[in-house]
Structures are given as structure tokens and as C-alpha cells.
Design brief:
Length: about 425
Amino acid sequence: MEQLSLAPIPRLAGHLKLPGSKSISNRTLLLAALAEGETLVRDLLDSDDIHHMLNALQLLGVRVAQIGQTRDFSVDGTGGTFPVKAADLFLGNAGTAFRPLTATLALMQGHYRLSGVPRMHERPIGDLVDALAQAGADIRYLNARGYPPLEIAPAQIDTGREIVIKGSVSSQFLTALLMALPITGHEATIRVDGELISKPYIDITLNLMRRFGVTVEQRGWETFTVPAGRHYLSPGEIVVEGDASSASYFLAAGVLAGGPVRVEGVGANSIQGDVRFAEVLAQMGAEVSYGDNWIEARAIGAIRAVDIDLNHIPDAAMTVAMLALAADGTSRLRNIGSWRVKETDRLAAMAAELRKVGAVVEEGADFIVITPPAALTPNAVIDTYDDHRMAMCFSLVALMGVPVVINDPQCVAKTFPDYFEHLAALAERVA
């Protein structure tokens, strides 16, 4: 297995332009493919998850063309009906592709098979399949019930009855339904059963749907109604924001190693919930400032321990766990049960790897308690579980005065292929 040894980084400062948001990139690609008209998608993320969505759309007959050597793509919309009615799609471990495509293809009157890597086949999808079945969709499990791979067959779809979906496992299930239902042309009402997690990601979905001409009637976080007779229309051009989850590592780095570090591509007007990571940084004692398209963070004193509900920023919450390693006491991160059904069981993985660097850790069903050691263990060998966020998180240990070894560093290709190069560049700039 490839390893990356990171020497201690005593100081880090500077600025960088963020790669595009994964959540916005894949949502935008699918909406552009379903819309009427051509859409120019600018600053699309270059990563494995996006490649899987692009490949799937092309197999489904959508014309997508990259503009020169840029990250701008032209997407010819299909008006809500993919030309190809039989396809076998491999989607890796891309939840932002697998879940929305499952819902969309279930309404597309075709024969489709969807599969992924072994971990994707361990990530639950039963709540989404059950919800689609209420509208008449014909989806079959090809292996374990409730999990991919899936087979989809043509079915008579009826949205006349309320569709109920559980909200406690993944917000991507609700996102998938919301994005797919307008192609039926009929009114559809979705009711969320139980607490809806990761609400800011639903805000991203609703915002982008409005950009493509479909406004969903929302009553709190319990009921969502997709109007009849409204179809997706291309906005002409759409720019993908920088990835707010990726921003968290560099903003945290600015606090751990002095800073300031400025990230460009997200700011005070971002539609992404993970920009609220900056609020947590301020709560932990950092100095944070904003512009319309940038956020900057620097250290101004000791990092304070926190007891905090992070349900609204589950991805960036992992970066909070790393800051807890350098805090002045015990931190408790609550309401993060969705970690268990991500690219790996992130609660178990985070607990195991934090202990390697000397932390005392209590792991619960939906919480983690972290007490930093008097001194971090040097040269800990960190397993990354084929999870990009584990690799990027634990690189921050090098900013806490000790060397660290990252196993399988290339797993960052899922969302940020040149992450380590950017981290090194910020350190070299100060040196």
C-alpha cells in the first residue's frame, strides 16, 4: 500500500482557490441533463465521484462536452427523458450519483442496473427504494435486501398519493426524490418521517432546482410538494461554488499553524451548509473573516474544547474532531450518526485512528468524545479506509508538531486529487 509521510509543519499561511463542490457538481450535472436546453456548467469538480456521474450520463445518451482544457462543460438537456432505455451503470462509491440516479431512472421507463464498489454495496438505500415503491416504481435488490446493487424495470408511476420517506439515515434520499419527481409532470407530495438530518444539503437541492425553474413548496422540514406541469429549464450558465467541506481542512490548518489562510470560491453568500464550519472555528477561539467569495481563518489563542451538535455539517464535523486533538480540554461532538453510513463507518474509523495518535476517545451510536493527550504520538500510521475525508483530516496532525504517516493517500481523488500538493504549497510559501 502506498504511504505518505508528512513531516511536522510549524507554520502555514496563504490563500488557495477551492475545487468545485461535489454536492453542487453532481446535482447540477443531473439537473442539466434533465432540463430543456443547453447548460454551460463552469468550474466543475475534477474527481472520481464526478467522473462516475459524467460516465453514467453519457451511457444514458446525454451529450456532455468539455470545453478545451478547462473545467467547464456543455450539457445538452434531454427534456426529462434519457434516450437510452437500457444500461448497466457502475458508480463507484459516489453516493451523490447513485442515490439521485436511482430515483431518476426508476421514473424513466427503462431497464437499468446500478452497482458500485463493495463499500457502496454496504451503504443503505432501502428507505429510498421503499419511498419510490409507494409511487409504483419497480426496483429489485440483486444481493442483500436494502442495499445495492439494484435492478430497475419499467413501471406505472402514480404520484397521486403522499410519498413517505425516512429522514434519519441520509438526506440524499430526499434529495433524490425531489430532483426526480418533476420529470413525471404531476404534482407530488413527500412527507418526511422522523427527524431530517443534514438539512443544509436539502437547501442546496432546493436552491439548484429553483435555478432550473422548479420551485418546491416547503412546509417546515416535514412536507415538500413538487408542482404539476413544471419541467426543468436550462438557466443557460451555472457556476459551481468551491467545495465548503474541502475548505474546512485549510481553514483548520490556518488555526492550527498560525495562519492566516484564505479559501476562495465560497463566502458569506454560499448555498452550502458546510460554510458554517467557520462559525464552529470562531466558537473554538479562532479569528474568522468573510467576503462574498472568500473565508479566512487564523489563530488568536488557545483552541477551546466544545460540546456541540454537528448534525447540520456532518462532513465538516470530521475536521472539528481533528481540532479537538489540539483543544484545551475534552470535546463532545453530538448527533453525527450519519457518519456510520458514509464512505466508511466514520465514527468507528475516527475513534480508532484518534487513539493511534494518543487521544482518549469514547465512541457512541451518534456521538464521539475526544480528550487530547499531553503529547501526541509521533509517526502514527493512519489507515484511511478508502475514505478521502479520513486522509485529509489526519494530514492535519502534521500541523500539531509531530510527523504522521497516511496510508493510501490517493483516496483523496474522490473529491480533491491534488489536496496534498495544495497543503505543501501553503507550507512552502511561509518557509
